[in-house]
Please model this.
Amino acid sequence: MEGYQEHSLGGRVFQKIREDILSGKYKENDELRENTIGNELGVSRTPVREALRQLELEGLVTIIPNRGAYVTGISRRDIWDIYMIRSLLEGLCARWAAEHIEEKQLYELEETILLSEFQMKKESGFSAEQIAMLDGRFHAILYEASGSRILSHLLKDFHNYVQAVRKDSVASEDRARKSIREHRQILRAIRDRDEELAEQLANEHIMHVIQNLKKQGYEKENCK
Amino acid sequence: MEGYQEHSLGGRVFQKIREDILSGKYKENDELRENTIGNELGVSRTPVREALRQLELEGLVTIIPNRGAYVTGISRRDIWDIYMIRSLLEGLCARWAAEHIEEKQLYELEETILLSEFQMKKESGFSAEQIAMLDGRFHAILYEASGSRILSHLLKDFHNYVQAVRKDSVASEDRARKSIREHRQILRAIRDRDEELAEQLANEHIMHVIQNLKKQGYEKENCK
DNA sequence: TCTCGTATAATTGTATACAATTAGATTCGG
DNA sequence: CCGAATCTAATTGTATACAATTATACGAGA
Model:
C-alpha cells in the first residue's frame, strides 16, 4: 500500500519474524530476545523492538513487561475460528463487491480464474504454490472490489494469518478443482449483480475449505 | 491481559495517540511528528515511534517512509462498515457463547443488565457514560464467553474503534431502553442454550444500532 | 541438603547520538 | 521576474549508550 513495510528495516524484520512464527520456525512460548534476533538479521535492537510491538498487536506475540516477548502461536482452534469468521466476512465482501465492482476488476477476476484453470491442466502436474497464489489474488481483488477499507484490511490480515494452511488446503487436486469452480460461480453472481447469491456462494466457498481442513485434522475439538 | 499497555511508556503513548485520533484532537491528514509528540508527553522519540508503528497496523495512521506519519482517521463510511461487520460477528459470538458460557459469566451478564436497568430508573436522569460503560461490559463478557481468542480480540478492537460513536448511540433514552431489553433477550437465549436464537438476536441488536446511527446522520451514502 | 539472601549477569526500557533522506530557502543564471 | 540548482534546516531511520528491572549463580546458615 504505502511501501513502508518493504522499504524500512523495521518493516522487513516484522515480516521476517511473522513468517518465522507462521512457518513454525519459532514455536509456541519460544522467547524472542531482541539482541539474538537483531544479530541474526544483522540489525540493532531498535527495529526488532518495533517489530515485536507490532506483532503483539497482531496477537502473534505476547510481551511481558521487563521480561520479554514470547511466541503466542496459533492453535488449530484459532485456525478453525478464523475460517468460521472468514466465511461470514467473505460473504459480506462478495455482497458488497456485487454492489461496487468495476469492469476492470471483473476482468482481473476472470483472468485469475483462467490462469488457475490453465495451471490445473498442465500435464506435468499443478503447482500448489501457484494455485495458492492465484487463490490469494482472486480473493484480494474481491477485497478491493468491496470498496470497504475496513473489511479489506481485515480480510487481508486473516489471509496472512492462515498463509501456511492455505497451501495445504489446495494441495489436494480435488479441492483445488472445486475451489476454482466455486470462484467461477462467485464471479458470475457478482457480474450479474446478484448480491444475495454472491454472499451465499462465498460463504459456502469458505465452509468447503473448512470441511477440507477437517479431513486434514484441523477439527474444532482438536484444540488445546 | 498482559499489562504491557498500561505499564510501559510506549504502551501509554500508543493509547494516548489513539484516543486523540478517535476523539478528533488529531484530524485526518494531520502530520504526527515524533519529536513534537514526544515533547508534549515528556518522553523521547523511541516510545513514540513504537506507538506510531502500532497505530499504522491498526489502520489509524499512515506512514510514508522518510516522510512521516499521518492520521488516517475513520470516515462515516468506516463506522458504518464496522457496525455491519460487527453485526455478523456479534451474532457468531452469541452463538458460540451459547455453547461455551459458564455459570459465573451468566451471572455477570445478569448483573450488568440489572445495573443498567437501575441506571435507567434514576430520577435524576441516566448517565450516558455509565450506560455506555455497562453496554461495553455486557459485550465484553460475551466476547470472553465465546471461548474464542481470535473473535474476542477482533471484537474488542472494533469496540475501541467506535468508542466515540457508542456514547452518541445510547444518548437517546429510547434507544438505551430498547438496547437493555435486547440484552436481556440475548441473555435468555444464551441461558437456554438456543444458539440459533442467540445469534439472530445479537445480529439484530447491532442492526438496530445501525438504524439508530442512520438517524444521526451516519448514512452509508455519507461517505467521502 | 535445603533454603534464603546477596551479588552478578543478562535483558529490557528509554534516551540520545549519528546517518540518511527530504523539504524548504536562497542564490544564481536566464 | 521566473526557474533551476544548491545549500541548509528539519525530520526520519538506525545504532548505541545508559538506566532499570529481572533472572541466575553462588555461598552462608540452619
Residues 76-222 of chain A form a domain with the Four Helix Bundle (Hemerythrin (Met), subunit A) fold (CATH 1.20.120.530).
